[in-house]
Specification:
The protein has 264 residues and is an alpha/beta fold. The chain is built from nine helices and 14 strands. It has a seven-stranded mixed β-sheet. It has a seven-stranded mixed β-sheet with strand order 7-8-9-10-11-12-13. The radius of gyration is 17 Å and the shape is globular.
Length: 264
């Protein structure tokens, strides 16, 4: 079976990504309520109870809101690094010891024919990390919630067949918006979020011959718009000779509606 995925929800109100390959199925983050998560799974014709586990990127509420509820209800294993486990203490309720697993940043875990590679990102959390999925020569790379994309991150995600890539904000919208300066400064910092333009600049270094799909993710509801994000990324990439719609396609993600479950 091929490597398949759907961005179930993406944005400041909640994040969750579904990935499956050859009988293994994982949820990356559960940042919506249990009821909302169940509805999202129904929309892609999948059942939460069939998950192999839940992978946690970091402890912010828009990534773990439904984590405890889903894990307890469906007896699901949870994978997170040690510092994230410590940071989640008191946030997700009691989790049975036999459901708690440590996934060290920078390591690889293998589930059947699916290899999951974790890597660190730069965000104001205990030890945030994201994942690259490898299956039969195909690669899916997920990277959001980072203030910048380092050379080390680029080395891990380079030439993925599909990317889920942060394109959080338009800098001008953020600067002119209603947020307090302290929040603006945090978002713009190296432990905040990647802007539309900076996302495209990072993409230039990681897009390869295998790359066919790029999903723009974690858009700010107040400081970005889908059309603006797509236009900004397309224009910046085009300035360096990357032609969307020919070499690869750009896709939107949404806070409440899953992307189509696709195979890569």
């Amino acid at each position: 079976m091929s490597l398949q995925f759907s961005v179930l929800a993406s944005g400041s109100t909640g994040n969750a990504i579904y990935v499956e390959a050859n009988g293994q199925a994982f949820l990356v983050d559960a940042g919506l309520s249990g009821k909302q998560m169940t509805n999202l799974f129904e929309q892609i014709d999948r059942d939460i109870k069939n998950l192999s586990g839940i992978l946690v990127t970091h402890e912010h509420s828009d990534h773990i809101k439904g984590l405890g509820v889903l894990a307890r209800k469906h007896k699901l294993p949870i994978y997170a690094n040690e510092k994230t486990w410590q940071a989640m203490n008191g946030l997700i309720g009691e989790i049975s010891t036999d459901q708690k697993f440590v996934f060290q940043t920078g390591s690889v875990k293998t589930f059947g024919s699916l290899d999951i590679e974790s890597f660190g990102v730069s965000h104001d959390a205990a030890e945030p990390m994201f994942f690259a999925f490898h299956h039969e020569g195909k690669k899916l790379a997920l990277i959001t919630d980072t203030g910048y994309v380092s050379d080390k991150m680029k080395g891990t995600i380079r030439n993925a067949d599909a990317f889920v890539f942060e394109s959080n904000h338009d800098v001008s919208m953020l600067q002119m918006g209603h947020y307090p300066w302290s929040i603006k400064r945090r978002i713009l910092s190296d432990v905040g979020h990647v802007s539309n333009e900076d996302a495209a600049i990072a993409m230039m270094d990681v897009i390869g011959d295998s790359t066919k799909r790029i999903y723009l993710a974690h858009l700010s509801k107040d400081n970005n718009m889908k059309d603006l994000a797509r236009m900004s990324v397309e224009q910046t990439l085009a300035g360096k000779g990357f032609i969307t719609g020919e070499q690869f396609d750009l896709y939107d993600t949404d806070p409440t509606t899953p992307t189509t479950l696709v195979a890569i």
